[in-house]
Design a protein that fits this description.
233 residues; alpha+beta; seven-stranded mixed beta sheet; 11 strands; 8 helices
Length: 233
């Protein structure tokens, strides 16, 4: 990731420099070269520049990839007494088939451009702006063209953040798309006390990200994004 990140930044800066040269030449040929600076200092200019940079940043982020080949170990996080949920989602989680989207663990690297950030707030749910975890899980499972991402992608994003911090994919997603929360329904967990939940990554008020989990009994809102992967047609 470090090498790839360095190469991507180099390409990004080169393109930005080229774009500046083109724009600068265009303004000069139009006879307004010097006027652009005062305009950028106005509220209108600042908004236009901010919008342009956000668009540029979003395009740049989409070119990056997340390494998700690492082995996710429940004993390391959340802890040794946690387990994968088994059986009916409204049961005790002890017996039956594990709730894991195995397709997620087959992914070794995914492009950010292939990620979808789902809220499942459509129709009537959009009016109220919230959905319970159980209902959201049901809605996500209905989507045939997506993979519910699990522990390996959670781990990949977390490791990337530990290495790159402010230059991490999580931070770039925050600055470009205001995504400050991501959860992973591809791995449903059973807590030591028997509660049902999923892993999450959350940006704190101090600007740092932390690992955690969300219970299915909680209410998910418009900024509660779930990471899913769009299957190529």
């Amino acid at each position: 990731m470090k090498k790839q990140w360095t190469e991507d930044v180099g390409i990004f800066l080169a393109r930005l420099s080229k774009m500046y040269s083109v724009v600068s030449s265009s303004y000069s040929s139009m006879g307004i070269g010097a006027n652009i600076i005062p305009w950028l200092e106005t509220e209108s200019g600042k908004k236009e520049l901010e919008a342009a940079l956000k668009l540029l940043g979003a395009k740049f982020i989409e070119s990056l990839s997340v390494s998700c080949s690492g082995h996710f170990n429940l004993a390391e996080f959340p802890g040794k007494d946690w387990a994968t949920w088994k059986g009916p989602i409204d049961g005790d989680g002890l017996l039956g088939e594990e709730y894991v989207d195995c397709r997620s663990f087959e992914l070794t690297e995914i492009k950010v451009s292939s990620l979808i950030f789902e809220t499942c707030l459509d129709g009537e749910k959009q009016i109220y702006g919230q959905i319970f975890g159980y209902d959201k899980f049901g809605e996500l499972r209905k989507k045939q063209d997506t993979i519910l991402l699990g522990g390996n992608v959670f781990l990949g994003l977390w490791r990337d953040y530990q290495i790159n911090k402010k230059n991490s994919i999580l931070e770039l997603l925050w600055h470009a798309k205001k995504i400050g929360y991501l959860d992973f329904f591809g791995l449903v967990l059973r807590a030591p006390g028997g509660r049902c939940g999923v892993l999450n990554l959350t940006r704190q008020e101090n600007g740092e990200w932390k690992r955690g989990w969300s219970w299915f009994t909680w209410v998910w809102a418009s900024k509660s994004f779930s990471a899913v992967y769009k299957i190529a047609a």
